[in-house]
Design brief:
It is a single chain. The chain is of the alpha/beta class and about 450 residues long. The chain contains 15 helices and 20 strands. It folds into two domains: about 170 residues, 3-Layer(aba) Sandwich (Rossmann fold), CATH 3.40.50.720; about 230 residues, 2-Layer Sandwich (Dihydrodipicolinate Reductase, domain 2), CATH 3.30.360.10. The relative contact order is 0.15.
């Protein structure tokens, strides 16, 4: 039996064996998943090898072998190849991610490119038969939410996982979600989502791209512009051309947790009114677009009010502490990556209402474990992962709507069922964007 067939047979067998016991689970580790045989380890390709991409691949290396790395910056790709915790000097290096997807031996791809490339690569990876781990924020536009959801619906045999690691924080975020879902805080009336303010900077100098960087390929579907160092590595998130600023950066984490907690994470749900009148940008905007091209342009100061059915108000704001404040009719709690506080926590209101069965419910009938462990367990056993695409796009709808309302500086109305902006043709015009020719996203 060849290596690929043997490896895939093992993954299916491993899933059936772990399903035998419903009370005792083992975490997916390098040893467990590999069954102590190199031929059984999944083969992984890394696409986008900047700081986050390299970090992700070091984590994936605990579960399989990184055999290929691809980046439009040759320096990033070569560095990952030579990293003893990633390519170990053996991985094949590509500048074009499609060469990774074309390889029949690769089972899993890890995508950590700039945000505006995520969905195109992810859809093509699904079409190529790969399991996909993609960093957040998954999407750039409201349309991309629909495109990636449709692709996943048509390829249910592949596991699609998003790098929203807060969903695996059992002592903080999962505890908060459970407390809200159990009704221990009463009816939720207000949620304050603190996501910090965006960066301000510029005017920046236009220059020649550095050696080894394919600037045209880096831009991808985005408009062709002169190279500015601050548009690229490390600071691309402060340009609406490539991201949504903090709305989609921290928003992809905190809005996700808030949406999950109140049960608004299903298709057809979401806010109905988004008020962006209290938002400021570092440059002047006209008709939702920046008027200069050499300065950061995403919102830096804002309090965007999103109104949900049942009287829930979500304030997505740059002001105050980073984290999520849930306020209910019985109590309130605050949670972020450092702490979870509030009287209900101090008095352990969930003492008898937060146990292993609750964690298993939150994990979609799987054990609570490390973020990537859950990804590889789902590859072996099937089922939706803790960070699934369907709930994530619901949170991203709110994030993108907040950005659109802020860009226009007004209230907009959203129909969650039809997934359209209502009564505002200009705002609906920001639903999608026309990609450059040759960089279109496949519509599955």
């Amino acid at each position: 039996m060849n290596r690929t067939a043997n490896r895939r047979r093992f993954l299916k067998t491993a899933g059936s064996l772990t399903a035998v016991s419903t009370t005792a689970y083992f975490p997916w580790t390098s040893k467990a998943l590999a069954n102590e045989s190199k031929n059984d380890r999944p083969l992984i390709g890394g696409i986008g090898l900047g700081g986050m991409g390299s970090g992700d691949c070091r984590g994936h290396a605990g579960f399989g072998d990184i055999v290929a790395v691809a980046d439009v910056d040759k320096n990033h790709a070569q560095r990952a190849r030579d990293d003893e915790r990633i390519g170990k000097g053996k991985a094949d290096v590509y500048s074009d991610y499609r060469e990774v997807l074309d390889r029949k031996d690769i089972d899993v791809v890890s995508i950590a490119t700039p945000d505006h490339w995520h969905v195109k690569i992810a859809v093509e990876a699904l079409l190529a038969g790969k399991h996909v781990f993609c960093q957040k924020p998954l999407t750039l536009t409201l349309e991309e939410n629909q495109l990636i959801r449709n692709a996943c619906q048509k390829h249910p045999e592949q596991v699609f996982f998003i790098g929203t690691q807060q969903r695996s924080s059992r002592d903080k975020f999962l505890r908060a979600v459970n407390m809200v879902q159990k009704g221990l805080l009463g009816d939720i009336r207000k949620i304050t989502v603190g996501i910090d303010g965006g960066s301000r900077g510029g005017p920046f100098k236009k220059s020649t791209p550095p050696e080894g960087l394919d600037w045209d390929a880096w831009l991808g579907q985005a408009p062709m512009v002169d190279y500015i160092r601050e548009r690229c590595h490390g600071t691309f998130r402060w340009w609406y051309e490539y991201s949504g600023g903090k709305f989609t950066d921290w928003g992809a984490h905190h809005v996700d947790i808030a949406t999950w907690a109140i049960g608004a994470d299903k298709q057809g749900m979401g806010p109905t009114e988004i008020d962006g009148t209290d938002a400021s940008h570092p440059v002047t905007f006209e008709d939702g677009y920046p008027t200069v091209d050499d300065q950061f342009n995403t919102a830096h100061d804002y309090a965007v009010i999103c109104k949900f059915p049942a009287g829930i108000e979500m304030n997505v704001t740059s002001r105050g502490d980073n984290g999520i404040l849930f306020e209910g009719t019985k109590g309130r709690i605050f949670v972020n990556r450092q702490k979870i506080t509030g009287l209900p926590i101090e008095q352990n209101w969930d003492k008898d209402a937060y146990n292993d069965s609750d964690l298993e419910r939150l994990y979609k009938d799987k054990p609570a474990e490390g973020h990537k462990s859950n990804f590889y367990r789902c590859i072996a056993e099937g089922g939706l992962p803790i960070s699934d695409v369907y709930s994530h796009v619901q949170a991203m709808n709110t994030c993108h709507l907040a950005a659109i309302a802020a860009r226009l500086g007004r209230k907009i109305a959203w129909d969650p069922k039809s997934e359209k902006i209502v009564g505002d043709e200009q705002a609906q015009g920001l639903f999608a964007r026309t990609p450059r020719k040759g960089y279109e996203i496949p519509k599955v």
